[in-house]
Amino acid sequence: MFPDSLWTTELIMRPIAPGDAGAIFDEYAQDPAVTRFLSWAPHRSLAETESYIADCIASQSSRTFTLLGRRDRQLRGAFAVRRVSPGHVGFGYVLSQRSWGQGLMTEALTEVAGWALKQKGVWRFGDVCDVDNAASARVMEKAGLLREGLLKRWMVHPNIEDTPRDCWSYARTR
Ligand SMILES: CC(C)(COP(=O)(O)OP(=O)(O)OC[C@H]1O[C@@H](n2cnc3c(N)ncnc32)[C@H](O)[C@@H]1OP(=O)(O)O)[C@@H](O)C(=O)NCCC(=O)NCCS
Description:
By secondary structure, this protein is of the alpha+beta class. It is built from five helices and eight strands. Strands 1-2-3-4-5-6-8-7 form an eight-stranded mixed sheet, with helices on both faces. α1 (21-29) packs across α3 (46-58). The mean pLDDT is 98. The structure holds coenzyme A (COA). Coenzyme A is lined by residues 34, 37-38, 93-95, 100-106, 129, 133-136, 138-139.
């Protein structure tokens, strides 16, 4: 049910591949500022990035895309799209620090939301972010998702603390 690739004005989104490991490790996987609100700790070796990519590729319920600059083909980040339930598509995303603040993830999320809500039987496109992740919350708002409410003690973000943290729930529906 996932697209093979998506193109936006500035980005190419194509399925993550084993050959991306070096660039992902060098560009952002080791960076504690990038991983702060993610579910995984910064990678300490290339082997950890290779294993992460293998898990992404093996997943039946999600597809992870590598984000490349459309002009320079440089690696910018990654975007995971997942089938949460038959009618609900969720997502997760990450960019290298040097790619922040250029509107790239708003562009990617808007594109994926448009794709998801055109799929037969998909009624809801939504996910969560940590209450302190203001940049991610803003991206979801700019992509037209509505803040639905606060989910108390919803998800562990292990780079911050080891107990579940409050998260904002955002979604677009049709
Ligand atoms: C979240 C992330 C993907 C945003 O990507 P991005 O391409 O930089 O986002 P955009 O440029 O499209 O938009 C960011 C918006 O957040 C705002 N913003 C950024 N940092 C902010 C902060 N600390 N507080 C408030 N707003 C902030 C920006 O001003 C911008 O809003 P504006 O256009 O109204 O000015 C990027 O910061 C990232 O990769 N973070 C680390 C991984 C992560 O947290 N992923 C999400 C997990 S839920």
